[in-house]
Model the fold of this input.
Amino acid sequence: MKVLLVDDSRTMRNIQKSALAEIGYTDIVEACDGQDALSRVKADTPELILLDWNMPNMDGLSFLKAFRVENKTTLVIMVTTEAEKSRVVEAIKAGVNNYLVKPFTPDQLNQRITETVNRRKAG
Amino acid sequence: METRFIMPFMNSIKNVFGTMLKTTVGFGQPSLKSPGQISHGVSGIISFTGSVGGTIVVCMPLIVAKDVIRRFTGAIFEPDDPDFIDAIGELVNMIAGGAKSSFGREDVAISCPSVVMGQDHQLFQRKDQAIIIVPCQSEAGVFHTEIGLKVSQAAEKPKLAAAG
Done:
């Protein structure tokens, strides 16, 4: 499964990459903001996107809204410091499949990915 | 002095360091920052806007920051490496985001982080804004957090009116 990591922090992308490698995801592409991600999804067609919220140029929510106009199927997990209920609701309305609040352990990230992928398989 | 913001930051620092660095943090007595006080090493800064406005700064001596980053990323970065600055920014971002979520206010937003480095740098503060310094002690060493936040007057008015 190809995974797109969208986060303006290279540190966070590297942490996510290490966690993904633990569960066998090694086909990974990266984007540093929403704008970059919009061009990546056209070229790389990922099946799963891990998406930060607060980023320069284009934030995660704006990316998600633009992305979902054309793509309703790619799995998207928001990985963010935004923990307020209203933010989670906003993200779900915009089409996110799951939500993980930073900080997180590698196990928590992997668990969230596995449950999101399994839910899709079951559905 | 807005003491109500101290606990959310202490809790968030504990949570971020515990989860991402697998290390504990203890706290010293909070105090007011003196105007013109000099900072050393590296400062990660996040601005808050909305019904709570201002800035928070996490300041670390470089030697402490290097060990914090090693525990955070699993790699050793020198201060002139862009990844050093990126890691400090992300750490401060998580601390600010975690604290914000416990304010109980949905309209507060945080900025992307800024990082300032230098042996003797000075971060200017607004004259009407008191800044609280919270000393922090971790296994990586001693650092401190500066909290300069206040609730906007418009956001306080309904509470005062309700209180009569």
Remarks:
- Residues 20 and 72 of chain B are 6 Å apart (CA to CA).
- Chain B is about 35% helix and 30% strand.
- Chain B has a mean pLDDT of 90.
- The two ends of chain B are 23 Å apart (CA to CA).
